[in-house]
Give the backbone structure.
Amino acid sequence: MNCPEIVKNTRLTVILGAYGSGKSEISVNVATALRSAFPQPQKILLADLDIVNPFYRSADARELLESSGIRVVAPDYAKSNVDAPVLPGEVYVIFDDEEYKGVFDIGGEDMGAVVLGSLRRRLENTDHRILMAVNTLRPFTSDAPQIAEMTAELCAASGFPIDGYINNTNLLGETTPEIIAEGEKIILEASELTGIPLLVTSYMDGIEGIDGAGFAAPEVFVMDRRIHYDY
């Protein structure tokens, strides 16, 4: 699996976004890509800090991640759909043990982003990048002004600037290269409003007609579906 250079060259990657942005799937894939890029004994950690209305969670892929030697940190209620905004103490290992590379999955939109503010002193002393996942086919991020507004809300809640956007525009199994490219176009328009660059375009492997498609983002991240639900 390919691993974006911005992730490989950063000790802690923080991924946040609006509901439906796909940030949890991205977080799981980033952690898996890090494991592929840095075989053991490199320590890899995924902290699922989606502590507000935790329904779709990266912790749902715990078995897959742990079988790959990735340490998973999540509240005990991770699959209970309970709102209980309490950070697990285990999350601080990424700050205390420099042998780790890590991924933080931050959810709950602006309320969840407050989690970052509670970690301010630790984050400021740790090499990190904060990336915002955007699906332009979801409410509240469907055009450039909406993306800019959501960006401002997340920055205000977390107290940190966002370093870059991840274009994750998709319609699940109906995604086409044209849909992905249109998402890039909208996010690039948002970049002009916010000054935040589009750094990565992500999509699921197996999209018909994707081979040879050109995208504007400096990096393309091809993912596999890692989070599955029984309905």
Observations:
- The two ends are 28 Å apart (CA to CA).
- The mean pLDDT is 89.
- Residues 177-194 form the longest helix (18 residues).
- The CA atoms of residues 202 and 221 lie 5 Å apart.
